[in-house]
Design goal:
Elements (H helix, E strand, L loop, with lengths): L1 H21 L63 H24 L2 H36 L10 H26 L1
Helix pairs in contact: 1-2, 1-4, 2-3, 3-4
Length: 184
């Protein structure tokens, strides 16, 4: 059963990678900007430069005062579109791969505490994936209503549905395998 869970986990990861590549994870594809023509320029004539002589170094440090002030710190605020969360977009695939690696080691060693650790990572991965999916669905619905167009299509893209079903199967096989390893 551990090998079956491993095979389904690998299938789930492959489906997730396909979702990321094809951008069907809920994020609309960016609209390409039209290409702007670049004006042709002529190259300047090549000239030889005179030899460079070394000058003594000049320090550009401001004079030290008694009550020196710190330079201003730039405060940059990063804005992400609604429904996108960079931490979820990174952590869901990363945790899935970490859990897959732990499960692979469990299959090779049959060390049952490792099965429970991999299962815990799987639970956190599924939670992050659900949160990511729900956030994208809400943002798409909100964008459709704000645009005044028809409401967003209710339903799950086929590939995302298969990815979710494979993750559910992985969850079930992992918990059964971990329980069997703990009691056997």
């Amino acid at each position: 059963m551990a090998i079956a869970a491993l095979v389904v986990w690998v299938l789930t990861a492959a489906l997730g990678a396909t979702l990321l590549i094809t951008r069907q994870a809920g994020r609309p594809a960016p609209v390409p900007e039209p290409a702007r023509p670049v004006p042709a320029t002529t190259a300047p004539p090549v000239t030889t430069a005179p030899p460079v002589t070394m000058a003594p170094p000049v320090t550009m440090a401001p004079p030290v005062t008694r009550l020196a002030e710190l330079p201003p710190i730039p405060r940059v605020r990063v804005h992400t579109p609604a429904g996108e969360h960079p931490l979820l977009e990174f952590s869901h695939p990363a945790l899935g791969l970490v859990g897959l690696g732990l499960w692979f080691i469990f299959v090779g060693t049959h060390y049952h505490p490792l099965a429970w650790v991999a299962f815990g990572v799987l639970v956190v991965t599924i939670t992050a994936g659900l949160r990511w999916f729900i956030g994208h669905a809400r943002a798409a619905r909100r964008a459709a209503t704000q645009a005044g167009g028809p409401p967003a299509r209710r339903g799950v893209p086929r590939l995302a549905l298969v990815h979710g079903l494979a993750a559910s199967t992985t969850f079930l096989l992992a918990v059964l395998t971990a329980l069997a390893a703990s009691h056997g």
